[in-house]
């Protein structure tokens, strides 16, 4: 009976060969991913060239521009410089188009393109998976059921109630601003929205 013993050198040679193949495969996959990201960035640059924007870094985009405590100031500067819309690069292959012109918004809101899952999924815990987040046939069915409730003739009587709620909020703001120059509006707007819903839905 003969027993063959694998020499340590031969075993190490086999492991070394496997490591070389694995590292070569990893390198190829890395290069393919880099090429994919590069092509995607080139496609985005071409698609967004009609939306002018300040120069951006190839990796971190406009992130440094929005490092301040509030994004409002840099955003207002952009609105002054680019009056209809502009591109905002988040990082190398991710960009947003900021639209603030009513005519542009009509075009955007009139389309039925698929929704961006990255942006909208953040809303699900807050508003649930309702009409805003639904797509295609399900969205169409729900929209058709809700359309009669939002007819202009039905909503017209509520305009006065909404205006009253906004007036109350603005009066409160005038008092608060006279005491302090800073005002956090989120809580006030939320209360105004709740008050409007209570008045319109429950007449209370």
TrEMBL record:
It is found in: Endoplasmic reticulum membrane. It comes from the Eukaryota. Keywords: Endoplasmic reticulum, Membrane, Monooxygenase, Oxidoreductase, Transmembrane, Transmembrane helix. Gene3D superfamilies: Cytochrome P450. GO terms for cellular component: endoplasmic reticulum membrane. It holds the Pfam family p450. The chain crosses the membrane at residues 12-32. One of its GO terms (biological process) is lipid metabolic process. This is Cytochrome P450 4A. The keyword Lyase does not apply. Its main location: endoplasmic reticulum. GO terms for molecular function: heme binding; iron ion binding; oxidoreductase activity, acting on paired donors, with incorporation or reduction of molecular oxygen, reduced flavin or flavoprotein as one donor, and incorporation of one atom of oxygen. The gene is CYP4A. Belongs to the cytochrome P450 family.
């Amino acid at each position: 009976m003969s027993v063959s013993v694998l020499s340590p050198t031969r075993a190490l040679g086999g492991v070394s060969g496997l490591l070389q193949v694995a590292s070569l495969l990893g390198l190829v996959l890395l290069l393919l991913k880099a090429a994919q990201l590069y092509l995607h960035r080139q496609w985005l640059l071409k698609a967004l060239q009609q939306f002018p924007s300040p120069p951006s870094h190839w990796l971190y985009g406009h992130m440094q521009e929005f490092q301040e405590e509030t994004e409002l100031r840099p955003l207002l500067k952009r609105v002054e410089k680019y009056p209809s819309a502009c591109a905002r690069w988040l990082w190398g292959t991710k960009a947003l188009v900021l639209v603030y012109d009513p005519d542009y918004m009509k075009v955007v809101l009139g389309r039925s393109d698929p929704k961006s899952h990255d942006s909208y999924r953040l809303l699900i815990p807050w508003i649930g998976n309702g009409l805003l987040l639904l797509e295609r046939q399900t969205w169409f069915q729900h929209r058709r059921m809700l359309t009669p409730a939002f007819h202009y003739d039905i909503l017209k009587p509520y305009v006065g109630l909404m205006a009253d709620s906004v007036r109350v909020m603005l009066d409160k703001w005038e008092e608060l601003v006279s005491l302090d120059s800073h005002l956090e509006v989120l809580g006030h707007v939320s209360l105004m929205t709740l008050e409007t819903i209570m008045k319109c839905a429950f007449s209370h």
